[in-house]
């Protein structure tokens, strides 16, 4: 009977499962004399139990693996939608930004030239155009620059793990992006407004775009506050009283000013909060993903009475100099306050650990 059962299992199951099946069979044979179920039902039941155990039995299984497995369909749907709507989000950014620029040139600039003093006119013209150039430059570079990918050929680059999606070696600070469907060097996140991942080679462009876009929105919101109040009161007065009717041009000018102020104020608050959050992460030498990982490591080591230290935190000033690529004092102007396409520090594959006693980039 044992030989018959063994041959039956050889026909039903792959050879890779024979060892596990023998274990299941040996455990069930003790109770086989008292089991009155037909043989084919017992064999099917044992086989289904084995399949079920093979799905969740793993020495590395934890709550994160279970969570990822359960919500895999949700993650796949979000990644799929984000991938296909990335172009729509980019077009939306270009359209909204262009609408503000058109209003600034068509509506606000004539008012500035007619009402402000020469000193204020020079300030608004110079600052406005500098801010616009910085926004356009950094957005284009952030969207078009590759974030950086680990090599696909065999090489001597050190790695810390193997990606379970790409089945490729992952250097330190490298993570897999489900939307791009590949690993990204020093990945921070996938930005749908760029339709691109934010990684080692375009992280500075992304942060600079957020910073200068926030400054531009705050500038428009503050400088246009009185114009917004006048336009809003004019429309409300025209609706509630029998004041002389406005022309179509006057209505469009007032509505354009209101649209510009509401949009820039809203974006300034939301994007400003995001910019401050990323500035805090840069000061700590972390990315958005590493913030989550380091938090879990801190809790894990605290249970053992130890203190976790981020190996990529070189000190606040050093972190900013490395991130911005500042190698001498003049770079604070030429590489931070002016458009610059210089590459970041390092190749994104290897990283120095704890350079505490020396300045990585002395300035």
UniProtKB/TrEMBL annotation:
Entry keywords, A to Z: Acyltransferase, Membrane, Transferase, Transmembrane, Transmembrane helix
Q: Give TM regions.
A: 84-108, 120-140, 205-224, 258-282
Q: How does it sit in the membrane?
A: Multi-pass membrane protein
- Give its E.C. classification number: 2.3.1.225
Q: Which InterPro entries match?
A: Palmitoyltrfase_DHHC, PFA4/ZDH16/20/ERF2-like
- Give residue ranges for domain Palmitoyltransferase DHHC: 161-292
Its subcellular locations are: Membrane
* Gene Ontology CC annotations of this record: membrane
Name the source's superkingdom: Eukaryota
Question: Example GO molecular function term?
Answer: protein-cysteine S-palmitoyltransferase activity
Catalysed reactions, as listed in the record: L-cysteinyl-[protein] + hexadecanoyl-CoA = S-hexadecanoyl-L-cysteinyl-[protein] + CoA
Family under the similarity heading: Belongs to the DHHC palmitoyltransferase family.
Domain notes from UniProt: The DHHC domain is required for palmitoyltransferase activity.
In Swiss-Prot or TrEMBL terms, this protein is called Palmitoyltransferase
**Source organism per UniProt:** Seriola lalandi dorsalis
